[in-house]
Design goal:
With 163 residues, the protein is an alpha+beta fold. It has five helices and five strands, in the order αββαααβββα. Helix 1 crosses helix 5. The protein is elongated.
């Protein structure tokens, strides 16, 4: 006697579990990366700050969530940064560039920076993710579509918690 069983649901569950594990690994990589990874809303409020940012700049995550991203930009570079944000809204990703940021006690930190727009379901830019590192060859986090999807999910979860 033979018994047949529909394993479609089992296969779907396995695939969903595999995808969840992939996303979890990427989220852990972002959290534990040596690169400073931050997310800010369109008004410059920092809404995510990883351990790499803590090490690079000295602010704890709790402290960073109370400051505006523009406060970390030297005054002489703020106009250029605003132009970059406008360019980002048009192209959704900027190539790495060399710049400076301010650390907690006013120290200037030389960095390479790359950024991308996080877009909502309607395709509108709603936040900006920034990855900062000392030299381009030292970047430890792959900057691709999957990373942006994970960061968008994390931002949405954080925004829901703040409501």
């Amino acid at each position: 006697m033979f018994t047949f069983m529909d394993i479609t649901e089992i296969k779907k569950d396995r695939e969903a579990l595999r995808q969840a594990n992939d996303k979890l690994r990427l989220a852990v990589a972002v959290r534990d990366a040596h690169d400073a990874i931050t997310v800010q809303d369109l008004k410059g409020h920092i809404i995510a700050w990883n351990q790499g940012a803590v090490r690079a700049y000295g602010w704890s995550e709790a402290e960073a969530l109370t400051i505006n991203a523009s406060d970390r930009i030297p005054k002489e570079l703020r106009t250029e940064a605003m132009v970059d944000i406008y360019r980002l809204s048009l192209v959704q990703k900027l190539e790495p560039c060399r710049t400076q940021r301010l650390a907690k006690y006013g120290t200037l930190v030389e960095i390479w920076l790359t950024s991308a727009a996080l877009v909502n379901e309607e395709g509108k830019m709603c936040a900006i993710v920034v990855i900062e590192f000392k030299r381009p060859e030292q970047a430890t986090v792959p900057f691709g579509e999957e990373l942006l999807k994970i960061l968008w999910q994390l931002v949405r979860m954080r925004l829901l918690l703040l409501q």
